[in-house]
């Protein structure tokens, strides 16, 4: 070990044979006085490893674990010869490339191989240890192509196979059932086709099967969930109906069949152990399942964008753990059941774009954890319940496009968490009450029966981005909007206030907006516009809120990711798993806008990054959208203009996209243009 230390140039390791003559006391070396059992060189900004070092490690007879992950290693994978006792080899999160042929074939004891998040290409390697004792194979996020090799099935001890985010084609071999110890099989985000083999159901140990973001056709095999706990075959081209026994297995925890071409009804026999069920974006008909009973563990139910009919079942009130209920974009009728008020853990309720009628039940006000309530575009009548103002966690309230009447409850001013209020296209009237000062995304009161003078209290909403008062009966509009447009010479009469009668008469079409555009390069602007138009939304939308319990809150499942930067420091620092942990914690939110949310993520190395979460519309992730997004980001990532902050990396999940940026403490463009003080209404959009 002392001789080997001379071959590695890393200040982070601090290996010093003079001050510490016993290598067993060195950082990240685990050994006894006469034998080394593990050597951890991860996250050390290494750009290369001398072949002499590899050969030297191979002569350490007791070495069982060798870890070079999260460095900046480039080039081909070295050949590993010797290493008679090596059981675990981790070269993940580097920039290694080329084919893998026989470099690993001489390892007699290899059990765990991690080569994920590199740039390897060619066929999936099949020479992975001459003793065939491999247990875990992690090759995700590379550029492997071709078919899944049948030779892999000769490794009978395999318990984990992850080939996700590659370019694999062909079908899943039927003989996959021969891997009788397989627990986890992940094939997501490839180009696999054909049918999902029925033999998947014959693997008694298989707990998780994920093959989303592929091109599978045909039906879902009967009995596929006999042993599974986690099933994800979303975003493919599966057809037919959902097998009657698919949701009934007692071991099930999550099922995701969203965005396929499935039809027929949803089986009503849903397992009590099921935590998450996602069936959105299909052609399912029939009614919403109503077989829920007390004690059901369901936390996330997403049946949106289907052809479901009937009523919202009152039995949903038995699902006390339910955090997200999304039945939007169906043809549901009937009244909102008051039993929904019993779901004390509910955080997101989406019932928009249905045919619901009747009044909003006052029991809704019992949902004190609710952050998103969207029952827009239905046929609801009656008053807005005054008790709705007790929902102190509510950030988005959307009642637009109904037939609600009466006035807005005065208590709405006490809703301190409210960021967006959509009440347009109803029959509301009376006085506009004082609004919560934290409203930021939008206040929409358009197409109602409000009249008289527009209240000056609206000028208190200094963070509001969109105010829509159009198509009402206002008779007086006093210029409480202040203008300070100095430094914008292109604006005509920007600093003057127009009080003419003609101005008042045009009260229903006045648009006051100041748009400041900063363009550093035509290419940069072009790419940014493409991304903004294709992948952003006008209003903030809370999508997959997780449980507040860390144990029950699974991290977002990554289906595609890439390091865009060539900077070795950033490539070694960025840890996607740690970033997802940061995003799952609301305390890491730095900024919320109507388009996205920014998080601060601190990596194991101590470096910090901004992680920008884009809020997607429900139908954005159609097949092929990820590839388009990947292409645009790769172009943007190559920009070198000092005025453009380019992403360093990105991750895609089924619901969201995450962009990684260098953490800066110098402020934003808003700070440069307006200073650190409050932004005046000059930068807002107002429609009267």
Automatic annotation (TrEMBL):
SUPFAM superfamilies: L domain-like (SSF52058), Protein kinase-like (PK-like) (SSF56112), RNI-like (SSF52047). GO terms for molecular function: ATP binding. It holds the Pfam family LRR_1. It is found in: Membrane. Keywords: ATP-binding, Leucine-rich repeat, Membrane, Nucleotide-binding, Receptor, Repeat, Signal, Transmembrane, Transmembrane helix. InterPro entries: Kinase-like_dom_sf, Leu-rich_rpt, Leu-rich_rpt_typical-subtyp, LRR_dom_sf, Plant_RL_S/T_kinase. It comes from the Eukaryota. The keyword Transcription does not apply. One of its GO terms (cellular component) is membrane. It is a single-pass type I membrane protein. The chain crosses the membrane at residues 510-535. Gene3D superfamilies: Phosphorylase Kinase, domain 1, Ribonuclease Inhibitor. The lineage of its organism: Eukaryota, Viridiplantae, Streptophyta, Embryophyta, Tracheophyta. This is Leucine-rich repeat-containing N-terminal plant-type domain-containing protein.
């Amino acid at each position: 070990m002392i001789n080997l230390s001379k071959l590695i140039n890393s200040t982070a390791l601090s290996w010093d044979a003079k001050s510490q003559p016993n290598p067993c006391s060195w950082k990240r070396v685990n050994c006894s006085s006469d034998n080394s059992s593990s050597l951890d060189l991860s996250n050390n900004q290494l750009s290369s490893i001398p072949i002499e070092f590899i050969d030297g490690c191979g002569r350490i007879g007791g070495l069982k674990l060798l870890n070079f992950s999260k460095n900046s290693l480039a080039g081909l994978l070295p050949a590993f010869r010797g290493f008679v006792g090596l059981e675990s080899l981790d070269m993940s999160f580097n920039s290694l490339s080329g084919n893998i042929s026989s470099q690993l074939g001489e390892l007699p004891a290899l059990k765990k191989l991690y080569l994920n998040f590199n740039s390897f290409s060619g066929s999936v390697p099949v020479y992975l240890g001459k003793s065939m004792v491999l247990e875990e194979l992690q090759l995700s996020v590379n550029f492997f192509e071709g078919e899944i090799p049948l030779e892999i099935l000769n490794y009978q001890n395999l318990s984990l196979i992850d080939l996700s985010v590659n370019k694999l084609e062909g079908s899943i071999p039927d003989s996959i059932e021969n891997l009788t110890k397989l627990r986890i099989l992940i094939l997501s985000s490839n180009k696999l086709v054909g049918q999902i083999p029925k033999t998947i159901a014959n693997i008694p140990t298989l707990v998780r099967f994920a093959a989303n973001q592929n091109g599978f056709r045909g039906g879902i095999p009967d009995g596929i969930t006999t042993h599974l706990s986690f099933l994800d075959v979303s975003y493919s081209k599966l057809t037919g109906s959902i097998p009657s026994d698919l949701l009934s297995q007692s071991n099930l925890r999550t099922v995701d069949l969203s965005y396929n071409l499935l039809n027929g009804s949803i089986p009503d026999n849903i397992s009590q152990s099921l935590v998450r069920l996602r069936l959105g974006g299909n052609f399912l008909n029939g009614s919403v399942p109503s077989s829920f009973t007390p004690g059901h563990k369901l936390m996330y139910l997403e049946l949106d964008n289907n052809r479901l009919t009937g009523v919202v079942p009152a039995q949903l009130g038995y699902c006390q753990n339910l955090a997200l209920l999304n039945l939007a974009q169906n043809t549901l009728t009937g009244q909102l059941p008051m039993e929904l008020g019993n779901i004390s853990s509910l955080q997101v309720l989406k019932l928009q774009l249905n045919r619901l009628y009747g009044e909003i039940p006052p029991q809704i006000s019992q949902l004190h954890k609710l952050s998103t309530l969207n029952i827009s575009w239905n046929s609801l009548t009656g008053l807005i319940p005054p008790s709705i103002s007790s929902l102190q966690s509510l950030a988005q309230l959307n009642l637009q496009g109904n037939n609600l009447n009466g006035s807005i409850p005065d208590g709405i001013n006490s809703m301190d968490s409210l960021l967006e209020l959509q009440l347009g296209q109803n029959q509301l009237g009376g006085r506009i009450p004082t609004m919560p000062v934290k409203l930021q995304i939008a206040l929409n009161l358009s197409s109602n029966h409000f009249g008289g003078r527009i209240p000056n209290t609206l000028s208190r909403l200094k963070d509001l981005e969109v105010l829509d008062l159009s198509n009402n009966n206002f008779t007086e509009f006093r210029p409480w909007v202040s203008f300070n447009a100095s430094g914008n010479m292109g604006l005509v009469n920007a600093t003057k206030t127009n009080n003419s009668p003609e101005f008042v008469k045009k009260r229903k079409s006045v648009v006051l907006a100041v748009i400041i555009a900063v363009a550093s390069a035509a290419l940069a602007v072009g790419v940014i516009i493409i991304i903004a138009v294709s992948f952003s939304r006008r209003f903030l939308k809370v999508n997959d809120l997780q449980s507040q319990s860390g144990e029950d809150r699974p991290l977002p499942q990554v289906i595609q990711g890439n390091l865009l930067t060539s900077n070795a420091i950033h490539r070694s620092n960025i840890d996607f798993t740690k970033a997802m942990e940061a995003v799952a914690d609301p305390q890491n939110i730095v900024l919320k806008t109507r388009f996205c949310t920014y998080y601060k993520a601190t990596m194991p190395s101590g470096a910090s990054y901004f992680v920008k979460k884009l809020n997607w519309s429900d139908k954005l992730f159609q097949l092929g959208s990820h590839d388009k997004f990947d292409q645009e980001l790769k172009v943007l990532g190559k920009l070198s203009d000092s005025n453009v902050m380019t992403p360093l990396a990105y991750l895609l999940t089924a619901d969201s996209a995450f962009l990684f940026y260098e953490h800066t403490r110098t402020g934003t463009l808003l700070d440069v243009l307006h200073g650190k003080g409050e932004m005046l209404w000059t930068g807002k959009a107002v429609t009267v």
